[in-house]
């Protein structure tokens, strides 16, 4: 069995960015391997110091992770698959009988799929990291418009191989996912989908939808395998190829919140929200064409809250630290409410002082949560916060 990444130590979390790629490669190498040795008895590891709580208050790390998997990860991916299936059917109906009604229905299913994906995309470990699935599902940000140009070229040249889901899966990741389908449904020339003037555009969109459905199905199935990544994460032990003890397993979970809060605030939000209106970049916002920008932000925070509640991570806090769990929940709910209050075209929202204030408050909430989780919660659990996975070095 391959050597464990050298940074798997209690003092250095698994989400430290300097070795992120190494960790992903290691995970991919072990997913699906025989687990007779890997699934050793999980360590009963209290998440708080034994001296701080009576023995009855000890919490098993394996129980926390199993609750996160069963209560959030698996149902969230199953929901994504259901939405992707409905999206594919709606696209096929549109292609078979073009009309404004069917175009509106396909767009509604697209938004529903964005909602479902935004909730579960916070889980950037395990099966989604294999075979470039994460990038194939959503290639973003596309700062140099490389992906956009590839999609536009396929539409202009009517590339028949791109309209075949099987062949599309082997093409550039930028042509396969939600960003590509958004342009097909909302970009320049999308109005032709309501008529019979551009059957290729619809065929390409249907192929992309089918590809999204396939990825969702693959990931959902992988999380349900009894000997897959879920079993490794939920059963830390000395012989486990990925998680040597409960601290490493829980550090992975806490890293989800730390990394995703930074991604949502510094990449998603600040990618379009400037320090003043003159510095705004509305066309740099994710899903700006479909007006799903803030729906995506809502889903991200709602997903974090659902994961935190499902794992019952707060139960491992000492009595003096229990306030953190309630504060995390309240702030995640408030942040999601801020994003929910901002609807419509993002450029118009940015021009509205009241809505802009909601986005500013969203930023403040996520910053507060980063401190609360990345500093206070990790200290309570005896974890050491390291470099973010978004540092890029």
UniProtKB/TrEMBL annotation:
<protein>
    <recommendedName>
        <fullName>Imelysin-like domain-containing protein</fullName>
    </recommendedName>
</protein>
<dbReference type="InterPro" id="IPR034984">
    <property type="entry name" value="Imelysin-like_IPPA"/>
</dbReference>
<dbReference type="Pfam" id="PF09375">
    <property type="entry name" value="Peptidase_M75"/>
</dbReference>
<feature type="domain" description="Imelysin-like">
    <location>
        <begin position="74"/>
        <end position="361"/>
    </location>
</feature>
<keyword id="KW-0732">Signal</keyword>
<dbReference type="InterPro" id="IPR018976">
    <property type="entry name" value="Imelysin-like"/>
</dbReference>
<dbReference type="GO" id="GO:0030313">
    <property type="term" value="C:cell envelope"/>
</dbReference>
<dbReference type="InterPro" id="IPR038352">
    <property type="entry name" value="Imelysin_sf"/>
</dbReference>
């Amino acid at each position: 069995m391959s050597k464990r990444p050298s940074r798997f130590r209690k003092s250095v979390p698994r989400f430290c960015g300097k070795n992120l790629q190494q960790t992903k490669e290691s995970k991919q190498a072990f997913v699906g391997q025989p687990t007779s040795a890997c699934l050793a008895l999980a360590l009963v590891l209290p998440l708080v110091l034994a001296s701080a709580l009576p023995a009855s208050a000890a919490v098993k790390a394996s129980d926390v992770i199993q609750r996160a998997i069963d209560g959030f990860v698996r149902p969230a991916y199953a929901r994504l698959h259901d939405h992707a299936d409905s999206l594919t059917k709606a696209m096929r109906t549109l292609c078979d009988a073009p009309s404004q009604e069917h175009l509106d229905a396909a767009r509604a299913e697209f938004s529903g799929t964005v909602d479902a994906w935004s909730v579960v995309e916070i889980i950037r470990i395990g099966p989604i990291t294999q075979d470039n699935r994460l990038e194939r599902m959503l290639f973003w940000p596309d700062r140099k418009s490389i992906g956009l140009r590839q999609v536009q070229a396929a539409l202009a040249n009517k590339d028949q191989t791109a309209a075949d889901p099987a062949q599309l899966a082997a093409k550039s990741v930028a042509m396969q996912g939600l960003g590509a389908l958004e342009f097909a449904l909302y970009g320049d020339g999308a109005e032709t989908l309501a008529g019979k003037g551009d059957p290729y555009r619809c065929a390409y969109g249907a192929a992309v939808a089918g590809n999204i459905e396939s990825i969702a199905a693959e990931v959902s199935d992988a999380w349900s395998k009894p000997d897959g990544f879920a079993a490794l994460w939920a059963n830390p032990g000395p012989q486990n190829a990925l998680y040597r003890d409960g601290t490493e397993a829980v550090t992975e979970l806490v890293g989800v919140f730390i990394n995703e809060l930074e991604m949502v605030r510094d990449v998603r939000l600040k990618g379009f929200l400037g320090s003043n209106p003159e510095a705004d970049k509305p066309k740099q916002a994710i899903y700006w064409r479909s007006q799903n920008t803030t729906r995506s932000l809502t889903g991200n925070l709602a997903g974090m809250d659902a994961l935190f509640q499902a794992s019952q991570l707060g139960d491992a806090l000492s009595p003096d630290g229990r306030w953190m769990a309630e504060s995390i929940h309240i702030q995640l709910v408030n942040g999601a409410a801020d994003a929910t209050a901002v609807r419509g075209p993002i450029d118009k929202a940015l021009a509205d002082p009241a809505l802009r204030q909601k986005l500013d408050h969203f930023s403040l909430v996520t910053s507060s949560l980063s401190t609360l989780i990345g500093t206070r919660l990790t200290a309570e659990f005896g974890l050491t916060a390291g470099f973010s996975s978004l540092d890029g070095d």
